[in-house]
């Protein structure tokens, strides 16, 4: 029963409900369950190209050419807005399908 109480208390905090205040007071939620932006995994290179990884071809005088991963002179893209809002992974509610 202890785990249920801790989950319920987390939900009450998330919704902005305080036990000391009256029940009919309307409070704004302390946090939103939706995420509308995320950090990007993409990088810009020196030429302004955007990709997750960059490689350059190394051609030795003798032997077969091979690809080397570029890790220098890359700039992160930063925070990217999402087209569709998603639920935050730390949302304190369990969502499940209840079929009858």
Task: Map the helices and strands.
Blueprint: H1 2-15, E1 34-39, E2 43-44, E3 50-51, E4 54-58, E5 66-70, E6 75-76, E7 79-87
Antiparallel strand pairs: 1-7, 2-3, 2-6, 4-5
Record keyword descriptors for this entry.
100 residues, three-stranded antiparallel β-sheet, two-stranded antiparallel sheet, FUS1, alpha+beta, single chain
How would you portray this structure in words?
The chain has 100 residues and is of the alpha+beta class. The protein has a domain at 34-88. Helices cover 14% and strands 31% of the residues. It has one helix and seven strands; from the N terminus they run αβββββββ. The protein has one helix at residues 2-15; strands spanning 34-39, 43-44, 50-51, 54-58, 66-70, 75-76, 79-87. A three-stranded antiparallel beta sheet has the order 3-2-6, with no helix packed on it. Strands 1-7 form a two-stranded antiparallel sheet. Strand 2 (43-44) and strand 3 (50-51) form a beta hairpin. The relative contact order is 0.21.
């Amino acid at each position: 029963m202890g785990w249920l109480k801790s989950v319920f208390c987390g939900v009450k905090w998330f919704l902005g409900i305080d036990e000391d205040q009256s029940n009919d007071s309307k409070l704004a939620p302390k946090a939103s369950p939706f995420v509308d932006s995320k950090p990007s995994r993409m990088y810009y290179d020196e030429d302004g190209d955007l990709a997750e990884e960059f490689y350059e071809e190394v051609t030795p005088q003798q032997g077969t050419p091979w690809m080397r991963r570029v890790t220098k002179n890359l700039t992160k893209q930063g925070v990217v807005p999402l087209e569709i809002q998603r639920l935050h992974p730390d949302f304190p509610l369990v969502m499940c399908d209840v079929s009858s």
